[in-house]
Specification:
With about 600 residues, the protein is α+β, with helices and mostly antiparallel strands. It contains 20 helices and 19 strands. Strands 12, 13, 14, 15, 16, 17, 18 and 19 form an eight-stranded mixed β-sheet that branches. Strands 9-8-7-10-11 form a five-stranded mixed β-sheet. Strands 2-1-3 form a three-stranded antiparallel β-sheet. Helix 1 packs across helix 3, helix 4 packs across helix 12 and helix 9 packs antiparallel against helix 10. The termini are far apart.
Length: about 600
């Protein structure tokens, strides 16, 4: 129910009771459905801003007209407000919030400074408090390039902890000047700590300072007639100079900056983000957002920053293409500086990010146009009532009945929807060699949980007429009036491109050889096959790891967890000595012997 006057009065009444503290507020309608979740440094002042109705966009005026109730959560600071807001948005999916899907995990570099001889590691996942992190990097390639540079210039060890602890002689990396040899005492703890300090400075962009310090050390080594050490330092300086020579001049002077530009075209927003660390471009990535009705670029960009930097490490500075209403709040919450520019070199960098964002939208629109053309052809060839909006593709995978899984892949007019992929562990052990029975279990479990929102228009099966009839028999008790079921089987000589397609009550046929629609359907089937095989292999690998430790007498879940946390993997436990195993919390000398003997029968 829309009543602007009533909604405005409710807001004014809530101003009287709203806390003057940082926190999160929720706006609800007459059915207690959450319309909007917001954050504020001062909740009361933020609610007052909504009462100035003539300054609000049409979209927000419509939101105010629906408001019938407000709820508040007070938190200790702006950073916590940001986290709580994101958690509630992801949980409640409010109608007037800009909903973002940040499903990308970026690699970082990690140094555990509590180790006696820290190693630089590639890292993904949730960050802990006891390590130092650098990044993010846009790709694994970018991380590998930096790792390679650090090995050449700073010679930190790269071996696993268990290998490091059990070596007595230096490895090949020491011989080729890619490691300083801490495993065999070739460098003291103090000297190695100095290398670690230099690595931190390098990753923070302090290259000039490092080069000057290395030059002074080389000069001192030469004067002391320690020519071997002087040569090593000279090679390190040359490697560092080579890096600076190939550095992109337009990023010179930028230490820790993300450059973010936003573009809008044909109802799509794209946000392009460039990661600059230590004067180096660590890659860029696009984020696509289907336009939330009447939201402008500034509002979308602010929502993106709130979401993205709740899950990723913020840099020291963020350059953005739009002025932000809540800039001060975000700066306090993220402990960073957010800037816009209207001229100069930094303005050009932001404009370049905007151009990349626009180009990314145009590529996405071209891809969507191609997919839509395929879906239109699919509608014609298979006599579908409408252009399919959700296609579910199913496949099974097992190894002679072991580790059996079913897999569901989802395709939409915008491409594969990986968030909607599902796997099904086959629960009945008596059917794991029977593809029809496995498919029956998978589909029954899927359809028992189906809602109108996730109902497929088309089900695509990897199989022939037998599979098609079996599936119709499985689903006979469900409403299939709005669902088309298509089976795809291998053609003559099992050649790709010559597959046959089957529908109940219709004659089977093959699509034109090497046509776009045939290739599209093969891609759907192959994606389901890839996903099913990958899930099966993970399950098999996990089971093998599980059995290796669980078969050892005296090893329960707690000790197993301690072992894996200490060594990182079962393979590392296998390579460890009795003395090293006994160092793990909760592992006695006798238990360590049992573990060692189990792996070395």
């Amino acid at each position: 129910m829309f009543d602007l006057k009533l909604g405005l009065n409710i807001l004014k009444n809530n101003v009287k009771i709203a806390p003057e503290a940082p926190g999160v507020y929720r706006m609800l309608n007459e059915n207690n459905e959450v319309l909007y979740v917001g954050k504020a440094k001062n909740i009361k002042k933020r609610i007052i801003a909504y009462t100035r109705i003539d300054q609000l966009s049409i979209r927000l005026q419509r939101m105010v007209a629906e408001v019938r109730k407000m709820e508040f959560i007070i938190v200790e600071n702006e950073n916590r407000a940001l986290v709580v807001e994101n958690e509630l948005i992801k949980k409640l999916h409010p109608k007037y919030n800009i909903l973002l899907k940040d499903d990308k995990s970026y690699p970082h570099l990690m140094l555990n400074l509590h180790d006696e001889y820290p190693a630089l590691r590639k890292f993904r996942g949730n960050r802990g408090d006891d390590c130092r992190y650098f990044g993010p990097y846009a790709s694994a390639t970018a991380v590998n390039e930096v790792m390679d540079v650090i090995q050449k210039v700073f010679m930190l060890r790269s071996c696993r902890d268990n290998v490091f602890k059990n070596r007595e002689r230096p490895c090949l990396l020491y011989q080729i000047k890619r490691c300083s040899g801490p495993c065999s005492g070739k460098i003291s703890r103090e000297e190695y700590a100095e290398l670690v300090k230099e690595v931190v400075s390098f990753l923070e962009g302090k290259n000039t300072t490092i080069q000057q310090e290395l030059s002074e050390k080389m000069q001192a080594a030469a004067e002391a007639e320690n020519f071997e050490q002087a040569i090593v330092l000279r090679e390190r300086i040359k490697a560092l100079t080579g890096i600076q020579t190939h550095a992109n001049l337009e990023y010179a002077g930028l230490k820790s900056v993300d450059i973010i530009g936003i573009a809008l075209k044909d109802g799509w927003f794209c946000i392009e983000i460039f990661f600059i660390r230590g004067g180096q471009n660590c890659g860029n990535a696009p984020y696509f957002i289907k336009q939330t009705e009447e939201a402008d670029g500034s509002e979308v960009l602010e929502a993106f920053l709130s979401n993205f930097y709740t899950n990723h490490l913020p840099p020291k500075e963020i350059f953005v293409s739009e002025a932000l209403e809540n800039k001060d709040f975000l700066e306090d919450a993220l402990s960073t500086k957010i800037s816009t520019f209207s001229k100069g070199n930094k303005y050009k960098l932001i404009e370049n990010a905007k151009k990349n964002a626009l180009a990314a939208i145009e590529r996405r629109l071209a891809e969507n146009k191609s997919i839509r053309a395929n879906l239109e052809e699919m509608q014609q060839y298979f006599d579908l009532p409408t252009i399919p909006q959700r296609i579910e593709i199913y496949d099974n995978s097992h190894n002679q009945g072991s580790y059996a899984v079913g897999a569901m892949v989802v395709a939409t007019p915008e491409g594969f929807d990986k968030k909607s992929y599902r796997t099904f562990n086959i629960k009945d052990p008596t059917i794991t060699n029977d593809d029809f029975a496995m498919m029956k279990e998978v589909l029954k479990r899927r359809f028992d949980r189906m809602s109108e929102e996730n109902r497929p228009d088309v089900i695509l099966l990897d199989g022939g007429l037998g599979q098609l009839h079996a599936v119709h028999e499985i689903l006979k008790d469900y409403d299939l009036s709005k669902i088309s079921i298509i089976a795809i089987s291998k053609g003559p000589d099992r050649n790709a491109g010559k597959e046959f397609y089957h529908q109940l009550g219709k004659e089977s046929f093959a699509l034109p050889y090497r046509s776009a629609i045939a290739f599209y359907l093969q891609t759907l089937r192959d994606e389901a096959h890839r996903f099913a095989i990958g899930t099966h292999r993970k399950k098999r690998a996990k089971s093998m790891i599980k059995s290796s430790l669980d078969e050892i007498e005296g090893i329960g879940p707690k000790r197993k967890r301690e072992l894996l946390n200490h060594f990182g993997s079962v393979a590392a436990v296998k390579d460890a000595s009795i003395e090293d195993i006994a160092k793990v919390a909760g592992i006695s000398k006798k238990t360590a012997e049992n573990i060692y003997n189990c792996f070395h029968k």
